[in-house]
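>> received
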Amino acid sequence: MPTAKVVLENVFGMLGIVFWSFQLLPQVIANYQAKTTEGLSAKVGVYYATLAGIKIKKTISMEVAGILPVVFLFLGFLPQYADFLRYQSVQSVSMLFITADASGSVFSLVSLALREEFDLLAALNYIIVFICDLIVVVFYFYYKVRDRKNSMTANPE
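>> returned
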């Protein structure tokens, strides 16, 4: 009979999988309704396609194999941040998507914390995803507040 800790680890792990599995749905729906993918970086797609073709030799240590995805994950967010700065807005990014992505990170981190042996590299991956998502949220609210202030000064009532 599994212990409560093992059951909770599996429950939070499954919640992480569920949130990450369905996180793309709101973005797909939003793009379909808008009939555009404006604001989405094509560089991110090229990045993932390139990484899919790279094979790591078996002689490379597990630490390097664990650190590289964390670095590449962060680098994958940079083109999106550049687009936010270039367009001075967060276009075509679903906050529901970002919430699901961040929730997947949190649930997966909780699952890791409940394990007997903590996997630091996996935790770093989840932490980077959460931080990158948080940066998107900061951009979103910064531009939303700025636009609201600009519209209030342009249209005083």
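>> The radius of gyration is 19 Å.
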